[in-house]
Amino acid sequence: PGSTVPFARDPDFIPRDDIVGEIDRRRSVAGSRIALVGTGGVGKSQIAIEYSYRVRAEQNDTWIFWVYAASRARFEDSYRTIASRLGLVSSSKADDDQSLSLVHRWLSDEFNGPWYMIIDNADDNAAFTWESENSDGPALLSFVPFVPHGHVLVTSRNNSAAVAIVGSHKEVVKVAPMNPDSATMLLEKKLAYTAEEENDLRRLVEALECMPLAIVQAAAYINRMAPRMTLQRYLGAFSDQAKVDSLLSSEFVDLRRDRTSTSNAVVKTLQLSFEQINRDAPSAANLLCMMSLFDRQAIQDVLLCDIEVTGRDILNYGGPLGSTNQTAMSDNTGVLGSERVSEDAFESDLSTLIAYNLITVNESGDTFSMHRLVQISAKAWAVKRQSNYAVLVAISIIRLAPLLNWEAADFGASASYKSLIAHALPVWNSRAILLGSQLPFTESFWTEYMSLFNRVAWYLLARGEPELGLEMAQEVSTTIRHRLGETNRVTLWSELRIAEALLLTLQSDFEEAERLHRQVLEGKELLYGPDSWTVSIAMSHLGDILYQRGKFQEGERYLRDALRIQRAQVVPVNFDVMRTMLLLSSNLDSQDRQAEALELISSVATTREKLLGEDHRDTITSKINLA
């Protein structure tokens, strides 16, 4: 007996005893079929190569067969090689159908002895379970017999395809990235120069999230570019997002990988899965592209399925719906449907991405995550493949905007709000794609754009990142002014938010605060009218600043106007009203008008006790002030 495994054994192979032990356990059953399933680049084929050598060393009476399964043609070619090796046909005269039948017959005959077959890269479910569109022949799976003397080990990115071959989910072994210790050992072995700091080695494998192919690729790049390229320099380049795609797309020579159907670059390897999904389920590919825009961890399902967004909502075609331009845009992007995707279709798309091990789902089933390298690769693929990737960015903004609202209780403090902010920031970082697009986005879209990122800016300001928050608010205003014009209502609102953002950055500069509050008040009067509730709030803030500056009489006028507007509104007792009353009472007290001040404080104390209870700290504070 011999072997058709076309690869040499890897002297640098790092044992993955948990996986090999699982294969051993299952191989103890006669006629076993086992599948190694995981993301591209996670090391499935390398484990299979190593295992083939172990089987041959332990059982020298066993034939070892290697079958490429990336396509029907590659499968048939592998069977032709096996037929020739077994002496069943002459390689020069071998016919595909003849080779398939002859090898199947040989494998089925117990007299020929035990055999072990590795079916590598079996990602296409249709190739194994359905008849070929271009042939009258049966499905490929029928040429791999279930016999007690034959064992099969499958490697696949696609869980569904793997199950179709091995027959049960129970026979699937999930292959995850390495643990940090094993990943560090692999990097050490692959680097030509090992005088690297242990800390730097660990930092790089953590940056690559312990993905074996990415680690080998990084080591090959450093070795090729040495001595100018060091581990520290590579780490520095890897931290630059603009360079990451180039580093992860760099090809290298690896004699233990099939270069005819796969790439040695981790980005290109992962993108083979994306291409397969795009052929079989284009909507699932679009979903993956959408998910790649957000933070890669804890992506809520509400960001993906609960809000109906179409091209009609965000693009102004300058004509009636259904016009030629709109139809063409829909056909080109693949993301601009006119109807909401059904829940069943959404669930089907999710199951496709999960089956390909591109995303994982949490235990409660409502959030999803992806490996960092999957996200990087998916985003790069989406930019290249979809001419209107900007539309996906726009849709992500429309989906985020209503979830990050100004009225949210405990603004920005809840875990869910923080998670949404974490998703909004990567979308903000993709704005160049959106702003560089020539697509005719509507005014309503730009309103949502302004609204979302002003909320994010305020969150950053409130959470101790004033420079980033203010920079974001100012850039949003510039964008809106450019897109909608100087006098547009949305432009005025955007500039108003900048003034309010600036106020959050001030400490005790009351003169500048007064100027900005006057600007805010003027803007709100233009936008909402002189007697609106929001104008009354602005008046109250300005009255407070004037009081702080000792301008008691002018401050009193603004506070009384604010209170007049608020009391005229048909609303229940409101905390804004009580705040205005307290500010006015402090102002009057400073003017030695204690009787008027006491009347206001007494009214607030009574109201607070009624609303909050007599033991609430605000009620107690009011009573102390009254005393």
What does this entry show, briefly?
With 627 residues, the chain is mainly alpha-helical.
Descriptive overview:
The protein has helices at 17-27, 44-58, 72-85, 96-108, 125-129, 159-166, 180-190, 198-207, 212-225, 231-238, 241-248, 266-280, 282-293, 311-314, 324-333, 343-355, 372-385, 389-400, 415-429, 431-435, 443-462, 466-484, 489-505, 510-528, 533-548, 552-568, 575-590, 594-612, 617-626, and strands at residues 33-37, 63-68, 115-120, 150-156, 172-174, 299-300, 360-361, 367-369. It is mainly α. Among the domains are: 17-174, Rossmann fold (3-Layer(aba) Sandwich), CATH 3.40.50; 180-248; 506-626, Alpha Horseshoe (Serine Threonine Protein Phosphatase 5, Tetratricopeptide repeat), CATH 1.25.40. Strands 2-3-4-1-5 form a five-stranded parallel β-sheet, with helices on both faces. A three-stranded antiparallel β-sheet has the order 6-8-7, with no helix packed on it. Helix 12 (266-280) packs across helix 17 (372-385). The termini are far apart. 40% of the residues are buried.
CATH topology of the domain at 17-174: Rossmann fold
Going by CATH, the architecture of the domain at 17-174 would be 3-Layer(aba) Sandwich
* Structural class by SSE content: mainly alpha
CATH class designation of the domain at 17-174: Alpha Beta
In angstroms, what separates the terminal alpha carbons? Answer: 101 Å
The portion of residues forming beta strands comes to 5-15%
Query: Rounded to an integer, what's the Rg over CA atoms?
Result: 33 Å
Global mean pLDDT: 81
Quaternary structure of the protein: single chain
CATH homologous superfamily label of the domain at 17-174: P-loop containing nucleotide triphosphate hydrolases
Number of strands: 8
- Form type: elongated
Contiguous runs where pLDDT drops below 50 for at least 5 residues: 317-340
Major beta-sheet overview: 5 strands, parallel
Placed side by side, the strands forming the largest sheet appear as 2-3-4-1-5
- Helical content stands at 55-70%
Count of DSSP helices?
29
Pfam family, one: NB-ARC
GO molecular function, one term: ADP binding
Protein name: NB-ARC domain-containing protein
Domain NB-ARC: 33-191
